UniProtKB/TrEMBL annotation:
ATP binds at residues 112-118. Its EC number is 6.3.2.13. Residues 23-71 form the Mur ligase N-terminal catalytic domain. InterPro entries: Mur-like_cat_sf, Mur_ligase_C, Mur_ligase_C_dom_sf, Mur_ligase_cen, Mur_ligase_N, MurE/MurF_N, UDP-N-AcMur-Glu-dNH2Pim_ligase. It holds the Pfam family Mur_ligase_M. Belongs to the MurCDEF family. MurE subfamily. Catalyzes the addition of meso-diaminopimelic acid to the nucleotide precursor UDP-N-acetylmuramoyl-L-alanyl-D-glutamate (UMAG) in the biosynthesis of bacterial cell-wall peptidoglycan. Gene3D superfamilies: Mur ligase, C-terminal domain, Mur-like, catalytic domain, MurE/MurF, N-terminal domain. It comes from the Bacteria. Residues 328-458 form the Mur ligase C-terminal domain. The gene is murE. HAMAP family: MurE. It comes from Mucilaginibacter oryzae. Keywords: ATP-binding, Cell cycle, Cell division, Cell shape, Cell wall biogenesis/degradation, Cytoplasm, Ligase, Magnesium, Nucleotide-binding, Peptidoglycan synthesis. This is UDP-N-acetylmuramoyl-L-alanyl-D-glutamate--2,6-diaminopimelate ligase. The lineage of its organism: Bacteria, Pseudomonadati, Bacteroidota, Sphingobacteriia, Sphingobacteriales.
Length: 486
């Protein structure tokens, strides 16, 4: 229970109708979740306008409303606060309602197109191994000291973020590691959070359905660093074309990591095999269990973050060398007849290229690479032909299939992918809508030693079709087929 006056601390409002001296039981931005005594924040969304649900929120028991436009009729029994930006206001009131938990632990945010889950998860695993109590907010799952809390988003809404951070604080956490998606930044989900540091991974093609242009996507990511306080660190990947741009206007301490260019934290790949990476990292030679050049970047980013958080170098490297990262990222199994299956969450052109070039670099002979890949529905359509093209360029055979069709026709998504296939490669490509059949076909086509990459869904244990999530697990599918490959 909190007083309205406490909850609106720091909120710039242009008008208050009513008294700030009322008790608020909960905050909600969805009228359907309003409980009696709540404050309802009306946010203009991408589909509907929350202002249209103010009446419903009041019917459900809201006693205070934050909005950008006052309704035509207001009732004296409900407090109304007018603000310029309700999404920003939501971040402020959510943080205040939970007593600003981000200020009570060291919160590190990770942003970029690919690698966020991997870096945030490795940081969480590393810091737990170093003996700290920690929390994690990630695409795969949220965790507080080992307790798993299912996640619905890469970065949850402001109420959920602050609620989870408050639970971390109550559980004695010293650190919180979270992914910061570009959607979250532009929708102000991270407003009013106090970060101890921010990490940039890379910026490549994704989410242009939402941001429309690459520049707007870039600026959304950059806004995270622009908002960091001056006592935080801002760590960037200096090998990424936009690495320096990200930190251009930050007040935080600027630090960098890289394999190729000048950087504060440097590493060199000495060996890159299926069993792992040998890196010379900050002058030390260390074996890691993670595979591929992109993971050299992730490991270096994690190492640099740990150094910026003043951890002991030897302990960090020893612990990091044991870690395997997040579920569904370059996970592999071998069939009795030595066919290798890899499940990876590559769902952007760059990730597909990275994972396939890694497979290419580390395969021993001329084993065939068979890729099973689809693209998500209700997501960036422009990446579809590029992902298919990239898959074809780096594979011997490609099976185009469904990812999460969501509300789209899967056959149409596949058609859009087919447009990226070079005519000369067409005969090495087959389209199979049913993902189960697609994986089965890949297994039937594989000879001993061949490598099957099943890309795009990683840890996801469902396939979303028209709002229904049906159980589907790429690794389970491979395991079932592999039993018979003798
Ligand atoms: C496109 C998008 O990002 N949408 C997010 C956004 O919802 P929205 O703006 O579409 O909401 P809306 O449906 O237009 O509704 C507007 C407002 O009216 C309210 N409302 C609506 C109906 C009603 O009956 N009553 C009511 O009060 C809603 O609660 C909302 O406040 O704000 C919601 C609350 O934070 C999010 O749950 C929702 O995520 C949707 C479900 C989603 O799928 N988002 C994906 C694309 C996403 O965010 N992905 C990123 C990861 C991307 C990546 O890097 O890979 C993520 O962070 O997960
Ligand atoms: N540093 C990296 N650079 C490029 N590609 C990477 C990197 N790290 C991981 N990948 C590729 O991207 C995929 C997704 O990785 P990860 O889940 O860590 O990214 P993410 O940024 O969390 O993605 P999302 O936007 O869905 O949350 C991996 O399965 C791998 O194929
Ligand atoms: N966080 C990403 C996940 C994409 C995963 C892929 N399997 C898909 O459904 O497109 C998104 O929401 O765009
Ligand atoms: Mg993620």
């Amino acid at each position: 229970m909190r007083y309205l006056s406490d909850i609106i601390d720091g909120l710039a409002f242009t008008e208050l109708q009513g008294s700030a001296d009322v008790e608020i039981t909960a905050i909600a931005f969805d009228s359907r979740k309003v409980i009696p005594g709540s404050m309802f924040v009306a946010v203009k969304g991408t589909v509907v306008d929350g202002h249209d649900y103010i009446d419903q929120a009041i019917k459900n028991g809201a006693i205070a409303v934050i909005c950008e436009d006052l309704p035509a009729r207001t009732t004296g029994e409900v407090d109304f606060l007018m603000v310029a930006d309700s999404a920003v206001a939501l971040g402020i009131v959510a943080a205040n309602f939970y007593d600003n938990p981000s200020q009570k632990l060291k919160l590190v945010g990770v942003t970029g197109t690919n690698g966020k889950t991997t870096i945030a998860t490795l940081l969480y695993q590393l810091f737990r191994d170093l003996g700290y109590k920690c929390g994690l907010l990630s695409t795969v799952e949220n965790q507080i000291n080992g307790k798993v809390i299912p996640s619905t988003h890469t970065t949850p809404d402001p109420i959920e973020i602050n609620k989870l951070l408050a639970e971390m604080v109550d559980s004695g956490c010293d650190y919180g590691f979270m992914e910061v998606s570009s959607h979250a930044i532009s929708q102000k989900r991270i407003e009013h959070l106090v970060f101890a540091g921010g990490v940039f991974t890379n910026l490549t093609h994704d989410h242009l359905d939402y941001h429309k242009t690459f520049l707007r996507y870039l600026n959304a990511k950059k806004a995270f660093f622009d908002g960091l306080p001056k006592d935080a660190f801002a760590l960037t990947n200096s090998d990424d074309k936009n690495g320096n741009v990200m930190l251009q206007n930050t007040a935080a301490h600027k630090k960098s990591y890289g394999l190729k260019t000048m950087a504060d934290y440097k590493a060199r790949i000495l060996e890159n095999q299926f069993s792992g990476l040998l890196l010379q990292i900050d002058g030390e030679e260390v074996w890691f269990k993670m595979v591929g050049t992109f993971n050299a970047y992730n490991l270096l980013g994690v190492y640099a973050t740990a150094m910026l958080l003043e951890q002991d170098k030897a302990k960090v490297l020893t612990s990091l060398s044991k870690l395997t990262g997040a579920e569904g990222r370059f996970e592999y199994i071998t069939a009795p007849n030595k066919v290798v299956g890899i499940v990876d969450y590559a769902h952007t052109p760059d990730a597909v290229q990275n994972v396939l070039s890694t497979i290419h670099d580390i395969r021993k002979g001329n084993e065939k690479v068979i890729t099973v890949i689809g693209c998500g529905g209700d997501r960036d359509k422009t990446k579809r032909p590029i992902m298919a093209k990239t898959a074809c360029e780096w594979s011997d055979k490609v099976i185009l299939t469904s990812d999460n069709p969501r509300t789209e026709d899967p056959a149409q998504i596949i058609k859009e992918m087919e447009e990226g296939v070079d005519p000369a490669f067409k005969r090495h490509t087959v389209s199979i809508i049913d993902r189960h059949e697609a994986i089965k076909t890949a297994c039937m086509l594989a000879n001993p030693g061949d490598i099957i990459l099943v890309a795009g869904k990683g840890h996801e244990n469902y396939q979303e079709i028209n709002g229904v999530k049906n159980h589907f697990d790429d690794m389970e599918e491979l395991e079932a087929q592999f039993k018979d490959l003798i």
